[in-house]
Amino acid sequence: MEYYESHGRNARLICRHFDISPQTFYRWLRRYNPRDLATLEEQSRRPHQTRRPTWSRELALAVQELRERFPRWGKDKLAPLLQAVGWRCSTSMVGRVLTDLGKRGVIVDASLKDPWQRPRSLKRPYAIRKPKEYRATRPGDIVQVDTADIRPWPGWAFKHFTARDVVTRWDVLAAHSRATAHAATGFLDTILARMPFPVRAIQVDGGSEFMAEFETACKERAIQLFVLPPRSPKLNGHVERAQRTHREEFYQVVDLPDSIKEVNKKLRAWERIYNTYRPHQALGYLTPKAFYQQFIDAAA
What we know:
3 domains, alpha/beta, five-stranded mixed sheet
């Protein structure tokens, strides 16, 4: 205010100088009393006149009694029942009564939790959410792993496992009859054997196959295990895209044999083609092997 008085009472100049809006300045100017700086404090915005309840105590008790008998019923069901026994009340009035009773703690909304559903434990012994500051800058920093359901023909289905390194796009593939923690643990050993670089962290969704034995195996091998939040497949986007590629370029064009062992043989041959021969647009049309070699040469 002293600056305002000493600079020609130029309000716009004051606002630019102190980076405040004209509305704020004029509000302070109207309230300012140099003998009482408390006049500049934020004041209550409560209306001078507030709406008074228009229902009687007896109606509130009737609504309370009916709601306690039927905890899941709202104003749309309670209002016709009250009107049927002679109460003059609208649906919106019953809604306001329910709101008032809830604010005063007279009634409590019924829990929507299924009493027969066993609660899922959200605590994992080793897996954690990926920290925001963690970034994949080297091959092996994050390898995303996922499973896909493959049904070549009616009556036969198996699980396809894909692991993708997010830096080099190097993929490791395998087929298992089921997606179990034991199968995922075996696939972990396959990843470590076929990736041409050390694996430091693995990222998975919350599937049960990536718990228990798999989680223990990651801990024993000193590999960080990151688990995605629920319903967040986009955070595993690299491997999700890989699943589509392998479905379109392998499973939909290859005559599959009728045994998991033979499928894995063909899948292994496709994996070599994918990593060493197929150009990748995301890598500037290099193969993962060539891109990894460039990384090695640059680091030397």
